[in-house]
């Protein structure tokens, strides 16, 4: 096996493993974690430069920010994917997005060859994703059936966070004494400012995908 070198200058991006020029493990959505490609179905392609729009664009910027990538997982047919969605064509190119959470683009469909290309190093560490969400509203799923939505003001390397304008949702399970079925009840409250411990966090994502 050989290690795929990261396409980013950030040294902490996770590396993916290539086995016989194919992906040795599943390729997952960097946002929700669902499987996009099963193991050993995609071919590792290098020296294929393409300017892919960034998943998160800066605010108040009129032009689309793009990054030139050269390394990809490639598949020839759409049904090779476990989960994928397509955007409308932009400048003749259709981009690939996660079908579950609609995050992307995670790749593109070549208009000439009709080959699908997926970013080979698109799994970022949580801190990289959270850094892009500063001063924006996020969704945080926590242990003990707690969920919070709020504006992210600060975080540290342990994923401890400070959120403002928070809506907290707590789900409790009660047993119906008549038919012995479980009943799920939700209670909500508004919190002006909240400190969230990193060791209690299960998932962080934009809130609209979990509304």
From TrEMBL:
GO terms for biological process: mRNA splicing, via spliceosome; protein transport; small GTPase-mediated signal transduction. Signal peptide: none annotated. The keyword Lipid metabolism does not apply. GO terms for molecular function: guanyl-nucleotide exchange factor activity; RNA binding. PROSITE patterns: MSS4, SM. It is found in: Nucleus. SMART domains: Sm. Residues 125-210 form the Sm domain. Keywords: Guanine-nucleotide releasing factor, mRNA processing, mRNA splicing, Nucleus, Protein transport, Ribonucleoprotein, RNA-binding, Spliceosome, Transport. Belongs to the snRNP Sm proteins family. This is U6 snRNA-associated Sm-like protein LSm3.
């Amino acid at each position: 096996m050989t290690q795929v070198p990261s396409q980013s200058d950030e040294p902490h991006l996770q590396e993916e493993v290539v086995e016989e020029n194919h992906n040795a493990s599943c390729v997952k959505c960097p946002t929700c974690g669902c499987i996009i490609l099963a193991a050993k179905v995609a071919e590792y392609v290098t020296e294929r430069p393409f300017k892919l729009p960034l998943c998160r664009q800066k605010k108040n910027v009129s032009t689309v920010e793009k990054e030139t990538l050269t390394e990809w997982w490639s598949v020839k047919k759409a049904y090779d994917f476990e989960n994928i969605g397509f955007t409308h064509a932009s400048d003749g190119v259709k981009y690939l997005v996660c079908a579950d959470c609609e995050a992307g683009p995670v790749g593109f469909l070549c208009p000439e060859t009709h080959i699908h290309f997926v970013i080979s190093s698109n799994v970022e560490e949580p801190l990289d994703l959270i850094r892009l969400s500063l001063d924006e509203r996020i969704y945080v799923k926590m242990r003990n059936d707690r969920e919070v939505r709020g504006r992210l003001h600060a975080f540290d390397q342990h994923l401890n966070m400070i959120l403002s304008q928070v809506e907290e949702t707590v789900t409790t399970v009660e047993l119906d004494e008549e038919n012995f079925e479980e009943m799920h009840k939700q209670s909500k409250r508004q919190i002006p400012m909240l400190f969230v411990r990193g060791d209690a966090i299960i998932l962080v994502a934009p809130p609209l995908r979990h509304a």
